[in-house]
Request: fold
Amino acid sequence: MRQLILFLCSALFVQSVMAQQSQDLNQTMKNMGHAYKQAMEAQQAEEVNKHLETMLLLIQQSKQHNFKADVKTQSLQGLDRVSDVIYSAQGLLAKAQLQQAKELLRQIDGLRKEYHELHEPPGFWELLFGK
Reply:
């Protein structure tokens, strides 16, 4: 009986830790989305670059989270792809090409949609019939 209680307590602890990590990642992603929006609305290259630096910091924080094993590689790849776009945009900003940098940054929204699909729970029909 003691072992059963210990096991149940351990399971609840692990579940609460995993839920907290999921919430942390969710908040980090929301902050990244906010920084992206601010970068796209900014009118000066320096201001855009400031928000891009914030996004890069948030990407590094996101990489520290424990992703589900079946999507970890793809999730990290997606974060790397977003980083690559940001670095390319920063190169354009250094050449005073603000509009071209913003056009390039629009790719991030497509990457967000692509990689967020990995983390969505299965729908009703998917549960019933599979993929």
